[in-house]
Design goal:
This protein is an alpha/beta fold. Helix content is 45%, strand content 11%. Helix 5 packs across helix 6 and helix 5 packs across helix 7. The chain is globular and about 80 Å long. The two termini are 45 Å apart. The structure holds flavin mononucleotide and iron/sulfur cluster. Iron/sulfur cluster binds next to helix 14 and helix 16.
């Protein structure tokens, strides 16, 4: 299948040697958008951002211009935080932007800080991204030396101090409020919302927090004009998007696509589809947190609303393809173990639910489970969704729930096969099932109460991994 030609906005010059230096970036028109923006009033810049329809590229898809406009006016200290934690499994687009075109990100940050009236900025870089943080450090030194960052930038009256902060490697620190706590030097645990960061964020001050890709798009919008940018893509999902494609495809990598193209064009056209002789079994359209979709969903347009209507989400734009050589149990276990490990442990449904889900999946693998365990596991996922302080719990429950719903037969076969290997016949199965029925009822009750509960036949559940933040 031929790939659709997409206007390259973020990746246009990405393979230009030396693009990470100010000299090459400027030769390519870099920092012209900042000069233009500083000739405009902050309100005019905000209007362009709103007109562009740009939705956040970090996961939640909230309108960027609108979020920037929520910051109160006035002389108090305001903050801009760039979320460069990029830890969602399957996502590696921000890494490429930071590493290859760091000045584009810096330019976007300075423009956005001007629009929002923020004069203190931070880039929170994922702990494992040492190289990218080094590249950003060098670029920031160049930008400071050229007067793009600092006091009274080009005589505009706008000043911005900017700090690059290295995290310590915790997925939860990508959640915006956990990130803010981590930046303040505390353990990275999510905060209760409201208040939202726009009103009360870093050090209790108004804070605009955006993803790397979102902010790197800002200079493009100023260069093109918001309305022209909005002509790309589809209604509700304007512009281009970086997608990271991984898993069972022939050409994994980052691709820039126009939002709204059929997903099939990405999976087959750009990434080459699964290896020869293999078929797509299922795919995650937006990172491991997204409910899985099936091969027949590959014709769904790749945009926020269409993927939502199809029962999943665009998330961070990470497509993970699973081919028919992979048992669904392996996929489910990988996903559940990740979220169990990364749960911060602050709220019960997530801490216990992720732990319990892993244990039940392991029971299936070891031949200790009965079909009843599937019902319990599905019910646990339902009781996690919407009942946690942040969406990390949902991020496990949604894909696991979707796998149970879409691959029930395969899970049942796993259960039967593993039991047969242990020499447990049907009679034993029904005995265990009877026992499980009682346990299921108590499981429902406990899950509904949001309390910790052990899987049937288990001793009291060990507490979920308490993963601290930076
Ligand atoms: C558990 C969890 C992890 C997250 N990780 C990231 C991340 O690594 N990078 C990111 O930009 N957003 C991440 N987010 C989303 C942020 O909370 C926030 O919505 C985003 O940074 C806002 O930027 P945007 O509007 O530009 O997308 C995460 C959210 C959750 C719940
Ligand atoms: S949902 Fe999980 S990660 Fe989020 S606050 Fe609760 S325990 Fe922590």
């Amino acid at each position: 299948m031929a790939a659709t030609a997409t206007p390259k906005l973020l990746l246009a010059d990405i393979d230009e040697p030396g693009l990470h230096t100010r000299e090459v970036y400027e030769r390519r028109g870099g920092y012209d958008s900042l000069r233009a923006a500083l000739q405009m009033s902050p309100e005019e810049v905000l209007r362009e951002l709103e007109a562009s329809g740009l939705r956040g590229r970090g996961g939640a898809g909230f309108a960027m211009g609108k979020k920037a406009s929520f910051l109160p006016k006035g002389a108090m200290d305001k903050y801009l935080v760039c979320n460069a934690d990029e830890s969602e499994p399957g996502t590696f687009k921000d890494r490429e932007l930071m590493q290859k075109t760091p000045h584009m990100l810096l330019e976007g940050i300075v423009i956005a800080s001007y629009a929002a009236g923020a004069n203190r900025g931070f880039i929170y870089v994922r702990g494992e991204y040492d190289l990218q943080a080094d590249v950003l450090d060098a670029a920031l030194a160049e930008a400071r030396a050229a007067g793009y960052v600092g006091e009274d930038i080009f005589g505009s009256g706008h000043s911005l101090s900017l700090v690059i902060h290295r995290g310590a490697g915790a997925y939860i620190c990508g959640e915006e409020t956990a990130l803010l706590d981590s930046l303040e030097g505390k353990r990275g645990n999510p905060r209760l919302k409201p208040p939202f960061p726009a009103n009360q964020g870093l050090y209790q001050g108004p804070t605009l927090i955006n993803n790397v890709e979102t902010l790197a798009t800002v200079p493009v919008i100023i260069r093109m004009g918001g309305e022209e940018y909005a002509e790309l893509g589809v209604e509700g999902s304007t512009g281009t998007k970086l997608v990271s494609v991984s898993g069972h495809v022939r050409r994994p990598g980052n691709y820039e696509i126009e939002l709204g193209i059929p997903s099939r064009e990405i999976v087959y056209g750009l990434a080459g589809g699964p290896p020869e002789g293999r078929e797509v079994k299922c795919w995650f359209p937006g990172g491991s947190s997204a409910p899985v979709l099936m091969p027949e969903d590959l014709d769904v347009p790749y945009d926020f609303d269409s993927l939502g209507k199809a029962g999943s989400m665009l998330g961070s734009g990470a497509i993970i393809v699973i081919d028919d050589s992979t048992p669904i149990l392996d996929v489910a276990l990988k996903v559940a173990k990740f979220y169990r490990h990364e749960s911060c442990g602050k709220c019960t449904p997530c801490r216990e639910g992720t732990n319990w889900t892993v244990k039940m999946l392991e029971r299936i693998e070891s031949g200790e489970a009965t079909p009843m365990d599937l019902e319990i596991m599905a019910s646990v996922q339902e009781h996690i969704i919407g009942n946690c302080l942040c969406v990390l719990g949902d991020a496990m429950a949604m894909p696991i729930g979707s796998m149970i719903a879409k691959f029930r037969d395969e899970f049942e076969s796993h259960i039967e096969d593993a039991r047969a290997k242990r020499g447990l016949g049907d009679a034993a199965a029904s005995e265990v099932a009877l026992g499980a029925q009682g346990a299921e009822e108590s499981g429902h009750r406990l899950a509904a109460q949001g309390t910790g509960a052990q899987a049937p036949g288990e001793h009291a559940g060990a507490p979920g991994t308490q993963k601290g933040g930076a």
